[in-house]
């Protein structure tokens, strides 16, 4: 009887995890696309994607437009491309997405005309083989530099930046080590007892396991051009942080042993939660070749993530200290810890800055 239930359980797991693989194998090939990244981080008011028949671009054709480009140097004709073609910009990135690789070529040459806060800048005509089924990364990812009144468009031949998942371990280690050092110095400066210091350092290490994934995944997932799957995992990190944060606050007995018990529960539950989130992410993002430009600007999400970490960690340290730390003292150590970890992260992980 037990074997029968066991085999049923294995069958259900097989269906759940193999179904995404089967559907993925039937997913259509992505359409042609170009990513434009503005290295100067200039704010774009409007951007025009233009087709040209010659390198001199005597008769430019407005293919698509994002935002407002109304000054004298902008093209005033109507864009010739409609949906499902897309041309969207957000912050310092623009994306052109075509309809199909089988469509006729748009033009032999392309150029960008952009309206910025101070002036209109246009690029020279450029060629890119982005429509080829075997196009290289540099053909589909272009860098844009602002040079006086001109835009300089270059293929991105830099090494690909690692994803947040790839450097998560290093970033977490930097955060844990730097914040534990700052906390140890702070408690030593206050001449705290060894028992209190051990308990609070254990609490700092545990709290970071809850708050850091929120800072690392949730707030960046709110920014423009983020996939739905990324936002599912970001929301999952926030839910886990809330659940375990409440569990910490409700502890009646606070010592290293109870904190380690919470850590054990977290270790067991996280893989299960991630597996569930993975299934949800697949179903909500299946067929999404490219993310939407909608989102919250980074100048909002970055301070918000820092504020979340400081406030949450200060409150938890205040409660877990059993009022041996005042709220002001807990806030001070939280600011010092997060300031140090942020600075070291920017210095040691420049590829994500």
The largest beta-sheet arranges its strands as 3-2-6-7-9-8-1-5-4
Count of domain modules: 2
Model regions low in confidence, pLDDT < 50 over at least 5 residues: 5-26
Count of helical stretches: 8
Secondary structure tally: strands? 9
Strand content: 15-25%
Largest sheet: 9 strands, mixed
User: How do the SSEs run, as a string of H and E?
Assistant: HEEEEEEEHEEHHHHHH
Quaternary structure classification: single chain
Q: What is the CA-atom radius of gyration, in angstroms?
A: 25 Å
How would you sum up the global shape? elongated
Mean pLDDT: 88
Distance between the termini: 57 Å
Structural category: alpha+beta
Helix content: 40-55%
Written description of the protein model:
The structure is a single chain. It contains eight helices and nine strands. Mean pLDDT is 88; it is low at 5-26. The protein is α+β, with helices and mostly antiparallel strands and 353 residues long. It has two domains: 33-155, Immunoglobulin-like, CATH 2.60.40; 168-352, no CATH class. Helix 4 (194-221) packs antiparallel against helix 5 (228-249) and helix 5 (228-249) runs antiparallel to helix 6. A nine-stranded mixed sheet has the order 3-2-6-7-9-8-1-5-4. It is elongated, with a radius of gyration of 25 Å.
């Amino acid at each position: 009887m037990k074997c029968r239930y066991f085999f049923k359980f294995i069958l259900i797991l097989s269906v759940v995890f193999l179904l995404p693989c089967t559907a993925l194998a039937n997913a259509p090939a992505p359409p042609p696309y170009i990513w434009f990244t503005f290295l100067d981080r200039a704010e774009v008011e409007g951007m025009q994607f233009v087709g040209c028949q010659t390198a001199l671009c005597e008769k430019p054709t407005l293919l698509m437009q994002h935002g407002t480009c109304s000054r004298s140097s902008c093209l005033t004709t109507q864009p010739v491309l409609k949906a499902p073609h897309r041309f969207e910009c957000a912050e310092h990135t623009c994306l052109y997405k075509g309809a199909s690789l089988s469509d006729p070529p748009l033009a032999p040459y392309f150029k960008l005309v952009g309206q910025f806060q101070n002036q209109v800048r246009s690029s020279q005509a450029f060629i890119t083989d982005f429509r080829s089924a075997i196009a290289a990364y540099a053909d589909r990812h272009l860098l844009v530099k602002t040079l006086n009144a001109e835009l300089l468009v270059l293929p991105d031949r830099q090494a690909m930046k690692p994803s947040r998942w790839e450097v998560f371990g290093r970033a977490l280690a930097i955060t844990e080590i730097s914040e534990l050092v700052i906390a140890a110095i702070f408690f030593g400066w206050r001449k705290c007892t060894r028992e209190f210091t051990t308990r609070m350092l254990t609490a700092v290490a545990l709290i970071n396991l809850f708050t850091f994934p929120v800072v690392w995944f949730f707030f960046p997932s709110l920014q423009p051009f983020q996939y739905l799957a990324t936002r599912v995992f970001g929301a999952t990190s926030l839910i886990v942080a809330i659940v375990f944060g409440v569990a910490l606050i409700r502890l009646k007995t606070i010592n290293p042993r109870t904190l380690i018990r919470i850590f054990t529960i977290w270790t067991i539950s996280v893989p299960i939660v991630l597996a569930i989130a993975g299934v949800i992410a697949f179903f909500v993002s299946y067929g999404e070749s490219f993310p939407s430009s909608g989102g919250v600007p980074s100048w909002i999400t970055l301070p918000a993530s820092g504020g979340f970490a400081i406030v949450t960690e200060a409150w938890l340290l205040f409660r877990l200290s059993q009022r041996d730390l005042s709220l002001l003292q807990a806030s001070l150590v939280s600011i010092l810890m997060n300031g140090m970890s942020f600075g070291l992260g920017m210095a040691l992980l420049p590829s994500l800055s």
